[in-house]
Structures are given as C-alpha cells and as structure tokens.
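Continuing the batch. This is chain 6 of the set; chains 1 through 5 are on the previous pages. Same settings as before, nothing changed between runs. Recording input and output for traceability.
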Amino acid sequence: MLSQSRLIARRAPTAALRRNFTTTRPQFGSPYHYPEGPRSNIPFNPLTRFFAFRYWAFMATGFGLPFGIAVWQTYKNQ
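Output for chain 6:
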C-alpha cells in the first residue's frame, strides 16, 4: 500500500506537466502569435519621433510625484 502511494506521487507531476503543455496551430503559423503583427496590441505607437521623450517624461513624473507630494506635505503650514 505504501509503495503504491509512492508510485502515484512520483507519476503525478509528470502527468500534470504533460497534460498542461498544449499549443494551438495558429501559434506555429505566426512568429508573433497574432495576425496583426507586433506592437498592435498596445494603445500607443512606439515608432513615433518623440516617443522616447514622452516615455521618459511619463516615467519621471510617475516616479517623482510621490516624492514631490511628500515634500509639499512636509513644508506646508499646519
């Protein structure tokens, strides 16, 4: 009885891996896995002229805003 449970426990992970690893035919046909091509599923165009400036300005604003708010809260009159 104990050896049978060990056998089942040893066989279970490979069965789960084998069962979960599946793929579909369209994924093999397209190198990007969707017919529209790369960069079609994002809401902005990274190929524009000023994309890098806009991107880093957005990131700097998002990173610096909490620090700016903290400084403002620290120095404001109570």
